[in-house]
Amino acid sequence: MTNPATDPSSGSQNNSQHDVNLSVVDLYTIGIGPSSSHTVGPMRAGYRFCLELESRNLLQNTGSVVVDLYGSLALTGKGHATDTAVIMGLNGKRPRNIDPDDIVPTVAAIDETNLMQLYGQYPVSFNRDTNLVFHFTETLPQHPNGMRITAFDHDGLKVHSQEYFSVGGGFIVSSDDHGAEYSGDNITLPFPFSSADELMEICKREGRSIAEIMMENEQSWRSPEETIAFVDRVHDAMMCCIDRGIRTDGILPGGLNVKRRASKLYKELTEKPEAGLRDPLTVIDWVNLYALAVNEENAAGGRVVTAPTNGAAGVIPAVLRYYEKFGANANQHNIREFLLTAAAIGSIYKKRASISAAEVGCQGEVGVACSMAAGALCAVLGGTPEQVENAAEIGMEHNLGLTCDPIGGLVQVPCIERNTMGAVKAINAARLALRGDGQHTVSLDKVIETMRQTGLDMQSKYKETSQGGLAVNVNVVEC
Ligand code: SF4
């Protein structure tokens, strides 16, 4: 079995479990928008289904494919481009190497011919109206983000079927391995940790930072050079995404007629720089700009880094860019420290709770991204591990209860602005923690457990179904 942590390009297969080993490559994925669980995950599922057919020698025998989407994947699937994502996956495309510009012409060709190129090579019958079924009132028992893909031979007989679950952050598990041990469990880490308390204990005992501990653990999977190269690629992709978002204006797709704002804001900030001198809070405009740029790219189906999800993809790049532009000590070493520290914090959430909005609402997406960014910023600004833990805790404490209620099932409203809020909150959390001594009332572990329990109590209409909150109180005018 491929170890996803060794192969940064592979889709990981994982579920929330305390005892799994998570690597930095499990927290960041270079993929496409608009959603990690509803776009990146389903595309991986489609691709993985092709691999299963290939390993069974069934590709040539397959005459048609049917995709059934359940639960949240059905309810918000259209707005999250789940349908086109799984089609592209079945066409042999993967999130890391797909050209976003290929999607529209490929789907149009399928609609015109009712033929799909399975695994990019084998023509099979596929009609979007009949072969892609949205089960709006059914949920598979194992997980709210469930799907089934079935292949039939040329006589219409079923030859293979598989259920997949998109468990957050682009992770996919199948019904064969749902609940199974993660492949990283075969690896023994020098400094294993499943909680913030354990991580603090290790840092104290070893006299090392969180990023250093994370880096030591990464060497169980690959060389330090390979890890550094991966982290640098993630950083480059984040910054490219900001730059593309800043350059692009227009209306976002999906029918909500949401205007892209980053490009106009950038012009205002750069054309009248003297205004910034009069208003010290202009720095917030810059942070907002970075987050808007990323999330507008995400909403448009562009290339983004899942960090730790797509809906929340703007928070970490925005805080990192803020640090690079406004921090006094930004350099390549500290940028790597930032991303490794954020990954260490994110891994604790993934182990102890969830980063899936379908499981815990937006607190698990923008809330977790805010917590990761807060801790990371605190670290590179000179915070002790205790202050970093404090910053991460503050970042989540004030996102507890945050629901997921995207209007029209699109990752646009409230998602795009919500990332600006997450980024600004993360910066404030880091500053609060840096002014303290690391001593505080609520530990990071306690707030993570509170987030998990709050998510369990949250009604499903607030968990990425677009059946509650803003999604039902704001009328969507179809165009
Ligand atoms: S409301 Fe939050 S969790 Fe839900 S789609 Fe938007 S960003 Fe993602």
List keywords for this structure.
479 residues, alpha+beta, 60s Ribosomal Protein L30, Chain: A, two-stranded antiparallel sheet, binds iron/sulfur cluster
Notes on the structure:
- The structure is a single chain.
- α1 packs parallel to α3 (82-90) and α15 runs parallel beside α17 (415-435).
- The protein has helices spanning 36-55, 71-75, 82-90, 103-113, 128-131, 196-206, 210-218, 224-247, 262-271, 273-278, 282-299, 315-326, 332-352, 357-360, 366-380, 385-397, 415-435, 444-457, 470-473; strands at residues 29-32, 62-70, 115-118, 122-125, 132-135, 146-153, 158-168, 171-174, 303-306.
- It is of the alpha+beta class and 479 residues long.
- The chain has two domains: 24-29 and 36-173, 60s Ribosomal Protein L30, Chain: A (2-Layer Sandwich); 186-473, no CATH class.
- A hairpin with a 2-residue loop joins β7 (158-168) and β8.
- Residues 1-16 and 179-183 have low confidence and may be disordered.
- A five-stranded mixed sheet has the order 5-2-6-7-8. Strands 1-9 form a two-stranded antiparallel sheet.
- Iron/sulfur cluster is lined by residues 311-312, 357, 362, 365-366, 404, 406, 411, 414-415, 418, 464.
- Iron/sulfur cluster binds next to α17.
Question: What's the topology here?
Answer:
Layout: E1 29-32, H1 36-55, E2 62-70, H2 71-75, H3 82-90, H4 103-113, E3 115-118, E4 122-125, H5 128-131, E5 132-135, E6 146-153, E7 158-168, E8 171-174, H6 196-206, H7 210-218, H8 224-247, H9 262-271, H10 273-278, H11 282-299, E9 303-306, H12 315-326, H13 332-352, H14 357-360, H15 366-380, H16 385-397, H17 415-435, H18 444-457, H19 470-473
Parallel strand pairs: 2-5
Antiparallel strand pairs: 1-9, 2-6, 3-4, 6-7, 7-8
Residues 311-312, 357, 362, 365-366, 404, 406, 411, 414-415, 418, 464 line the site of iron/sulfur cluster.
